[in-house]
Structures are given as structure tokens and as C-alpha cells.
Specification:
The complex is a heterodimer.
Chain A (H helix, E strand, L loop, with lengths): L7 H37 L5 H22 L3 H13 L2 H7 L6 H15 L12 H25 L6 H8 L6 E8 L3 E4 L3 E5 L7 E5 L3 E6 L7 E2 L8 E9 H9 L26 H5 L4 E4 L2 E4 L1 H17 L5 H15 L1
Parallel strand pairs in A: 1-7
Antiparallel strand pairs in A: 1-3, 2-4, 4-6, 5-7, 8-9
Helix pairs in contact in A: 1-2, 1-6, 1-7, 3-4, 4-5, 10-11
Chain B lengths: L3 H21 L4 H13 L2 E5 L6 H12 L3 E5 L6 H5 E7 L5 E7 L6 E5 L6 H4 L1 H8 L1 E4 L2 E4 L5 E6 L12 H5 L1 E6 L5 H13 L11 H12 L5 H12 L10 H6 E3 L3 H17 L7 H12 L4 E2 L1 H5 L4 H15 L4
Parallel strand pairs in B: 1-8, 1-9, 2-5, 5-8
Antiparallel strand pairs in B: 3-4, 6-7, 10-11
The chains are: A alpha+beta, B alpha/beta.
Chain lengths: 337, 331
């Protein structure tokens, strides 16, 4: 276009604007992509953070040229842009009629040139809309932040996204129900129906046999009447089994396959072996000799009997020092409490 | 061929024309400008307004300012076509021999004031069709050319519906502009009353001959139009066609019929005049927009929905302009 030389300053301003716009838009998109890739890498714990930077660089260069290709001023675009800034289609008309030698076309060109010379170049200043500027800044901040986090995560300085998310976002709480019941011949003391958060411990219960019965086992095979289920991970329906002493004595007289009154939930429950004098089960499951939460609880008759015997024994013993007698008395006082 | 003097004289002439018209006609600047633009572009104008707003006075003043033969036809229901065009009369010569001689009607002038045109029957109205479009009159098979320049400046009264005959589309289309003449504002009203208290005499001088007017038209015709502007004007016309490829949403909703190609011609020829009046030597988008309502308002046919919604043609045209500008990103 011949008239381009007359308005080189304007044309150069358009080229500068095209470069600025291309750079602006390409950076905006590239940083947005950098943000997405870095964030993804951080979340899925990809260690190859440099891929994000390579993508950013390649994308930035490619987009810059693509944008510049579309934004760079050609004669028609230059003319239209100028016209849109208040020249009222003078430039595009001048461009289209540049080879017209008619008088009116010449006058029109002169008129257009006159107006363009009066044109304020400042009007061509690249003005970024506020909203776009906000998006741009956000994109840069997010892109830089996400890539920094990704690098720090990959180098082990900070936790990966997966871990951080699981730390931050609370898992859905799961609760299990535990039910303790007693079969014939006993009761279960403690909280019989419990709702326990997954992984936590249940409250302790104890199976107590009634008169004439002894405790056999819990339905899951646990043979200790005291039980405390720890780290609960499923619903439990447990019952305590008891056997009458007569029946038990009969079983001892007719050894063979032990007959369990109720089939336990999990496997067979072995019969307790004789561990000393007398009937071990009778001793063990005496209602006056229970161990609860690691402490021994003695029934009153047993304790009183032992204490009476001890008092008599200490009274008869003349060789024992008074100090030793006092220690023994203190012990009985302690266990009585 | 136009010369530099023609170009330079144009704006001076326009200035003088406005000055003289303003001596007799107060206010209605847009009406005056529209009428002058149409006259330079060679189009007919339909002026619509209530009685007493200065329509007839404007047309008379134009006749004086342009120094053109002027005739006034008061349209009434009993007016016959021959009353307009003229007719063959039987005349006797000196020897007593009889022959037919054509007696020219009032149409044989340069500026025709067709006053209250919608009060005549369609038959009489149609007598103007040929004159308006082809600037000739055919009577008894003989065509007679009307003198140039030739304009029909018609007035019609919107509220006098009784005893009126709406102009047919074909005739409406032959009016380049339909200009609405508004009531004068308070200030203009005071000026009018003060002026007419002193004298009712019209004082405008002739500042432009018919020949000069034709020269101005030729000068304007040489104004270059960029392809984009031409395209925009044509899209605007096409956008009024509710079923066309370029139909605007507004046209689809409110129009039954769009503007004819004459509207496109009017946009360009009047756009050139308007540009020259503004001292610009090319047509701009704004020129097209400013002309749009005058060119299109009588050429579009509203559908029932538009009537029911009480949407005026001017509103529809404004919406179409917005739509086209937005759709084609015209800045």
C-alpha cells in the first residue's frame, strides 16, 4: 500500500500492539496450562515436573506466533482499525480506491491523509481491559504457584497433593455396631450394644456365669470372660456360652469330643485344661475370683475367709516381727478397697 | 465530468440552501436535511405529520430556494388521473380545423407538492407512479418526458383516516424517504408565532438553480464507497427480509415483508450526499445508520405480532441495525 509510508508511525504502532497482544494472550493461556499441568502433577504425584515447564515454553512460543499471525496488521486490517478509531471509513476507502485516478478519489485520499495526520497516535495505545488483566494476573500467579508446589512436592520438600488432600479432607466416618449377648447360664456385664467408630476400641464387657454354671467361651472363640474389642473394623454379634457344672462334670467323666452347648461363631473352643489342684474351671470361673480390667476382684466370702485365716495365723505366729505383720495387714486393707 | 470547483462549491451551496430554508421554516432541522438530501440524490419524499407543522410550507420554500417550477396538487377523493397528468383537449386552429392538443397537468413541473396524497383514490395515486419512477408521463399512448430535476414531495396526514386511501406498497417504495414531521418544540413554536405575527410572507431567496442541483447530484454520485460500507448497507436491507438468508431475529419476529432493492439504492445515493454535506468524501457506516429509518420505515411491513406488541417500525429498524452491527462486528 503506497500510503503506508505516509503513516509509518501508525503502522509501527499497530505492529507493536500486535506483538504486545500476542505476548499477552499467549502468556495468559500458557500460564493457565502450566497451572493445570503442575496442579495435576502435584495431585497425582508425578515427579517429572520439568515436563510442565517444557510444555509451557513450547506452548508460549507456538501461541505467540499463532496470535501474531492473526493479529499482525495487514493493509485492510490496519485501515479498518484506524477507521474504527474515528476516521469514518476514510482509510479503507482510500485503500480500496488507491488506484483510482478520478478527481473525487484523489480528493478523498487527500481528505483521508489530512485526517490521519491529525490522528492522535495515543489512541492506538494497547489498553488491556481490567477483567482480562485480572484473569492474566490470576493465571500467572496460579501458574507460578502450582509449578512451585509441584517442584517442591517432587523434590520431597512438601507432601504430594494426594497426601495433602487426604490430610485436609476428612474421611467419611464409619461406625460399627457390636452386640454382646449371653446364652443360658450367665449374663454379660457392661454395655451390651455399642456403636463404635471404625478403628476405635469397644468398651470392655465381662461374661459372668450364674450359680451352677461356668463360662465356656465367646462365640468367636475367645475364652477369657473379660473382653475388650480393639480397633473395631466390622459389625460384631457376639454371645457368651456357658455350661452347667453338672454337665461339665459329666463331660469329664466321659472324655471324648467335648460337647459345646452352642456352636461358637468361629471354630471350636478348646476345653480348658487342668492347671493345678482341683477343678480348674471351678476355680477360674468362681464368681468370687474375677479379673476385671487387669485387677482381681475377690468375692466377700473368699476375702473374709482369707482375711480371718490370716488374722488367726498372725496372732498365733510369735516369731514374725510386728513390722512384717503390719505389711500383711496393710496388704489386706488395700485389696479390700 | 465533475471538476474541483463542483466539489468545492457543494458545501457552500448546501450552506446557502439551509440558510434560506431556515428563513421560512423554523425548527424541523432533520426534516429539512432529509428532504434536501433526497432532492440532491434525486428521490421523492413522503412527509407525514399532523396538520399545521409546516409540511406544505417546507415544500413551497424548497421550490423557491431551488428556483424550480413548482406545482401543488391537492389530493381529494374526486381527483382524477387526468387532473394530475393532463389530457388531450380538442382545440380549433385559426382555420377552424379541430385537433387534439395535450394540455399538461400540474405534474409537469420540477417540484410537485402532492398534498394529502392519501386522500385520493388509488387510481389517481397510481397516476404518479410512472412520473415518480421514470420521470415521464404516458397519456393516450404518448409518453412525455418530465423536466429534470423532478421531485414529488408528498404529504400525508396520519390521523385523518376517514376518507383516505392508504398508499399501495408499489407507490410507497417509490418514495426514497418517509420523513415524520414532528410538532415543533416550545422554543421553535415561539419563534414561529413571533415570525408569523409580523408577516406570513415567505422570504427565502433562490440560491440554487435546477442545473446546479443536477451538478450537485453528479458530484455526490462520484463519492467513493468502500466495499465494506456497501456490504453493510446491503446486509441491512437483507436483514429486513424475515425469510431471507440474512434475516435478523427482529425481522423474523416482527416483519411480514422486507425492504426492496430500491432501499439499497437509496442507501448508497443518499449516503454519498450525506457524506458530502458533512465534508467527507467517502460514505461511512454512520451515514447509512442515520438514513436507515427514513429509507426503511415505509418499506417494511409489520406482522400481527408487531402490531399487537405495539412496536413501531423505527424501533424495529433500530434493533435490526444493532443486530447487524453486532453480528458482523462493525465498529
Amino acid at each position: 500500500m503506497n500510503y503506508k509510508n505516509d503513516f509509518k508511525k501508525l503502522y509501527d504502532a499497530f505492529i507493536k500492539n500486535a506483538v504486545k497482544k500476542s505476548l499477552f494472550y499467549s502468556l495468559f493461556i500458557s500460564f493457565a496450562v502450566l497451572f493445570v499441568i503442575s496442579l495435576t502433577f502435584w495431585i497425582v504425584d508425578v515427579k517429572e515436573f520439568w515436563i510442565a515447564f517444557i510444555v509451557f515454553g513450547v506452548l508460549e512460543i507456538a501461541l505467540f506466533f499463532i496470535f501474531y499471525h492473526f493479529l499482525k496488521p495487514n493493509d485492510v486490517k490496519f485501515s479498518k482499525e484506524l477507521d474504527a478509531l474515528g476516521l469514518e471509513q476514510r482509510v479503507i476507502t482510500m485503500y480500496e480506491y488507491q488506484d483510482d485516478d478520478s478527481l473525487m478519489a484523489k480528493v478523498q485520499r487527500e481528505n483521508a491523509v489530512e485526517h490521519i495526520r491529525r490522528f492522535d497516535v495515543k489512541l492506538l495505545k494497547f489498553v488491556i481491559p481490567v477483567l482480562l488483566l485480572v484473569f492474566m494476573i490470576s493465571s500467572v500467579v496460579l501458574g507460578v504457584s502450582a509449578s512451585t508446589v509441584s517442584v517442591l512436592s517432587a523434590t520431597g520438600v512438601i507432601k504430594s497433593g494426594k497426601e495433602t488432600i487426604s490430610d485436609i479432607i476428612p474421611q467419611e466416618e464409619v461406625y460399627y455396631t457390636i452386640s454382646y449377648t449371653a446364652k443360658k447360664g450367665g449374663i454379660v456385664e457392661g454395655e451390651l450394644n455399642q456403636v463404635i467408630k471404625a478403628g476405635e476400641d469397644a468398651e470392655a464387657v465381662i461374661a459372668v456365669s450364674t450359680h451352677g454354671y461356668i463360662f465356656v467361651s465367646w462365640s468367636d472363640g475367645v475364652r477369657d470372660p473379660y473382653r475388650k474389642d480393639i480397633k473395631v473394623s466390622k459389625n460384631l454379634d457376639i454371645f457368651a456360652s456357658f455350661i452347667s457344672i453338672d454337665e461339665y462334670m459329666e463331660m469329664l467323666k466321659n472324655p471324648g469330643e467335648p460337647e459345646i452347648p452352642e456352636e461358637p461363631a468361629q471354630g471350636n473352643i478348646p476345653i480348658p485344661k487342668d492347671e493345678g489342684d482341683g477343678d480348674p474351671l471351678l476355680q477360674r470361673y468362681d464368681e468370687n475370683s474375677q479379673i476385671i480390667d487387669g485387677e482381681t476382684y475377690y468375692g466377700e466370702s473368699v476375702f473374709d475367709g482369707y482375711q480371718q485365716d490370716m488374722i488367726e495365723m498372725l496372732a498365733q505366729d510369735t516369731e514374725m516381727s510386728t513390722e512384717t505383720k503390719k505389711i500383711i495387714n496393710d496388704y489386706f486393707d488395700t485389696i479390700e478397697k | 465530468m465533475i471538476n474541483e470547483k463542483d466539489i468545492n462549491d457543494f458545501s457552500q451551496k448546501i450552506k446557502e440552501i439551509y440558510e434560506q430554508i431556515n428563513r421560512d421554516v423554523i425548527g424541523i432541522k432533520e426534516v429539512i436535511e432529509g428532504t434536501v438530501v433526497a432532492m440532491i440524490a434525486g428521490g421523492n419524499v413522503l412527509l407525514e405529520g399532523v396538520p399545521g407543522v409546516g409540511k406544505t410550507r417546507l415544500v413551497r420554500t424548497l421550490g423557491r430556494v431551488f428556483g424550480l417550477p413548482f406545482s401543488r396538487i391537492q389530493f381529494t377523493p374526486d381527483l382524477m388521473p387526468a387532473d394530475v397528468t393532463g389530457t388531450n383537449m380538442v382545440v380549433k386552429d385559426e382555420n377552424g380545423k379541430t385537433s387534439f392538443e395535450f394540455q399538461e397537468g400540474p405534474i409537469f413541473a420540477s417540484i410537485i407538492l402532492a398534498d394529502e396524497i392519501n386522500r385520493a383514490t388509488p387510481k389517481t395515486q397510481s397516476a404518479l407512479l410512472e412520473a415518480m419512477q421514470e420521470h415521464k408521463v404516458t397519456v393516450m399512448g404518448v409518453s412525455r418526458q418530465l423536466q429534470e430535476p423532478f421531485f414529488v414531495l408528498a404529504t400525508q396526514n396520519p390521523i385523518e383516516q376517514d376518507g383516505t386511501y392508504p398508499l399501495p406498497e408499489a407507490q410507497m417504495d417509490r418514495f426514497m424517504f418517509k420523513i415524520l414531521v414532528p410538532n415543533p418544540g416550545l422554543e421553535d413554536l415561539m419563534t414561529i408565532v413571533n415570525l408569523t405575527q409580523k408577516t406570513m410572507e415567505e422570504v427565502a431567496d433562490t440560491v440554487c438553480s435546477g442545473e446546479e442541483l443536477l451538478r450537485m447530484r453528479e458530484t455526490a454520485n462520484n463519492i467513493p464507497v468502500a466495499n465494506d460500507v456497501l456490504t453493510y448497507a446491503m446486509i441491512l436491507v437483507a436483514a429486513t427480509h424475515p425469510t431471507g438468508e440474512y434475516a435478523s431475529e427482529t425481522a423474523k419476529k416482527y416483519l411480514r415483508l422486507g425492504a426492496s432493492p430500491r432501499a439499497g439504492q437509496a442507501f448508497i445515493s443518499c449516503g454519498k450526499v450525506k457524506a458530502l454535506i458533512k465534508g467527507r468524501y467517502n460514505v461511512a457506516y454512520d451515514d447509512i445508520d442515520e438514513l436507515a429509518t427514513m429509507i426503511l420505515r415505509h418499506r417494511i411491513k409489520l406482522n400481527f405480532e408487531a402490531v399487537a406488541d405495539r412496536v413501531s417500525p423505527d424501533t424495529i429498524i433500530e434493533e435490526i441495525i444493532q443486530e447487524v452491527r453486532s453480528k458482523y462486528k462493525i465498529k
